[in-house]
Amino acid sequence: xxxxxxxxxxxxxxxxxxxxxxxxxxxxxxxxxxxxxxxxxxxxxxxxxxxxxxxxxxxxxxxxxxxxxxxxxxxxxxxxxxxxxxxxxxxxxxxxxxxxxxxxxxxxxxxxxxxxxxxxxxxxxxxxxxxxxxxxxxxxxxxxxxxxxxxxxxxxxxxxxxxxxxxxxxxxxxxxxxxxxxxxxxxxxxxxxxxxxxxxxxxxxxxxxxxxxxxxxxxxxxxxxxxxxxxxxxxxxxxxxxxxxxxxxxxxxxxxxxxxxxxxxxxxxxxxxxxxxxxxxxxxxxxxxxxxxxxxxxxxxxxxxxxxxxxxxxxxxxxxxxxxxxxxxxxxxx
Length: 334
Description:
Helix 1 (3-21) packs parallel to helix 11 (235-254) and helix 2 packs across helix 7. By secondary structure, the chain is mainly alpha-helical. The radius of gyration is 27 Å and the shape is elongated. It starts with a helix and ends in an 18-residue tail after the last helix. The chain has helices at 3-21, 39-61, 67-82, 84-99, 101-111, 115-129, 138-160, 165-168, 186-194, 197-220, 235-254, 260-281, 292-316.
């Protein structure tokens, strides 16, 4: 399972997700959240829908606005907490892969012309380091059912009318249930024709934020380029990097036709993942785009090193090394 296979697998998974999110879902006209029609709705969709309704009502009961938006953020936090073990495993795998880059580069220089031998040596290196090259795909596979379930849950809650319109507003977004399945992306051309720039900004800004955070997260998962600008990368690595940046752009366009609440979940999830990524593996390749981050990361590492190096000195210091107290001299007797 080399990099090419990993890239193709990731592309297949994302394309399946894109196809599902663009219309291969059940349509909800009027549903009863207490009467699911199958195991999928009973286990995933309707529990999330009920949680959205309950949290939104609880937040409204506290006198706070934007109940539905905060309910989505709370659910995002809960999901992130539940998936912490998988996320940590993924981030540790990402960090280990970054540390292996110099050795992988040596193998590419040595066996660059023999692709089969190169693949064998790379897999041998992964086994010796205890790394699964596909380990980073596991959290993505876990996220897909959650995305599908939340996608359906938003439509189910919208059909029940259990969330008042005042609670559907979130910050500058008028309705987190919009655009609906029947509207899709047609609102973009309609808003352009009518000159409704406020609507365009309201519903296009969140997909843009999702795109930016997704691209930043993808860049953080890659190692920083060497001084040569990464010109020595093999074609497989270049292909995978291009694909990793093409997919967020595709999903950014797809979210223009999805309910804003789903895009809100995706954006918040990306931000939380970036925070986790930073504390486990640092900024990664994001320093190639924002060089100032490299200085902050270097300063942070220097602080850690200084703390580690100064503590043993303090612990091993003995009373003999302490400054001597002045000795009192006896006065001479007259």
